[in-house]
Amino acid sequence: MNLRSFLGAAAGIAVFAASASADVTFQFQRFTNNANVDVASQLSMTVSQVDSNTVRFTFNNTAAVQSTIKSVHFDELDSAADLISFSSSSHTTTSGGSTASFFKNGSPASLPDGSAISFNTELSHTANTPTTSRGLNELADSLRVTLDLVSGRTFSDVLDYLNDGSLRLGLYVTNIPHSYNKTKADSFVNLPSTTTVPAPAAVALGAIGAAMAAAFRRS
């Protein structure tokens, strides 16, 4: 590979790598105390960049302990009011044996007991009835909510706002074992992410370094 070809290839790799963003996973914590079992450790949300204008939120429940995610709720504080276009919301589901199925802005319209943490639902996606079987209640189930960013906003802004609490996601989880063959429901809110996202420049430099190493091996 000659120098000109190498530089052209490296530039292309750098542009691609700089535009790429890793998926980032968030866990949840319970803020109600209704059920005897706290299932927070089996709930997760993965945030992904679809393109420069679109972000996707994917919700999962490993269901190691019996439970069903009945609804997901978005709360955008005033400081983040120019981040996401909630009117653009669409969703898809992946289902195991439970035929997961959701619809937009159903009941509960607000995250139950959300007032305890000043949670104000601006968008929700709710399982169809019967929610015990149509919600997320096994590992193979997932709900993916796709949203457009407001012009000028980026995927990094979404991650920053999720981590500082300006954008919050809540889950209402039902069918949790309690006692005497009864079940209870609890509400959960996302925690800051523990995923480290490499800066675009670092990704680009890494890609160029890999290209250089490959070129020298071939020469």
Quick take:
With 219 residues, the chain is of the alpha+beta class. The chain has helices at 3-19, 131-134, 155-164, 200-218, and strands at 24-30, 43-51, 54-61, 68-76, 84-94, 102-104, 123-127, 142-149, 167-177, 183-190.
Please describe what this structure looks like.
- With 219 residues, this protein is α+β, with helices and mostly antiparallel strands.
- It has 4 helices and 10 strands; from the N terminus they run H-E-E-E-E-E-E-E-H-E-H-E-E-H.
- A 10-stranded antiparallel beta sheet has the order 5-8-3-2-1-10-9-4-7-6.
- The protein is globular, with a radius of gyration of 21 Å.
Keywords summarizing the entry:
219 residues; ten-stranded antiparallel sheet; 10 strands; 36% strand
What distance separates the N and C termini? 7 Å
User: How many strands, what sense, and barrel or not for the largest sheet?
Assistant: 10 strands, antiparallel
**Beta-strand fraction estimate:** 35-45%
Q: How many helices?
A: 4
Net shape:
globular
- Strand order, main sheet: write it out: 5-8-3-2-1-10-9-4-7-6
Q: Overall mean pLDDT score?
A: 84
> Could you state the order of secondary-structure elements as H and E?
HEEEEEEEHEHEEH
Measured on Cα atoms, how large is the radius of gyration? Answer: 21 Å
Number of strands: 10
